[in-house]
Amino acid sequence: MAKISIFGVLTNVQMLIHTLFHGSKVGEDDLGNVYYRGKARKGTKRERRWVIYKDKPEASLVPAEWHGWLHHQTNTVPAAENKHRKSWQKPHLPNQTGTENAYRPPGHALMGGQRAASTADYTAWTPPE
After folding, report:
1. Cβ contacts of 86-93, under 8 Å, gap ≥ 24
2. Structure pTM?
3. Four-residue CA torsion sign, 40, 23, 14, 60
């Protein structure tokens, strides 16, 4: 059983040591993230699955096909030549919230705060007298 740090979660070093002794590599995605599996915890039946991120640990950096495997939605390990991806699908992008690339609709305070004028096709409802 892995030791818990004083912060209540495994530190990066503890996670790497745990992976070295208890994990077996399953595969790697196009972003360089490596996926592992290990024995089930005592009293449970499902194997443990986890990811070691190539760069910063951010859940939105896990492609959809690997997300399904990590969360036991499928037991099929995604193949290197990903047959689930279609030619029309865009490449995976991490969550852009909080960055300069975040979507800001017209009228957003950081986009000038001025929204487009109404097209006047709306009339407010008034109750009958």
Report:
1. 92/30, 92/31, 92/61, 92/63, 92/64
2. 0.62
3. negative
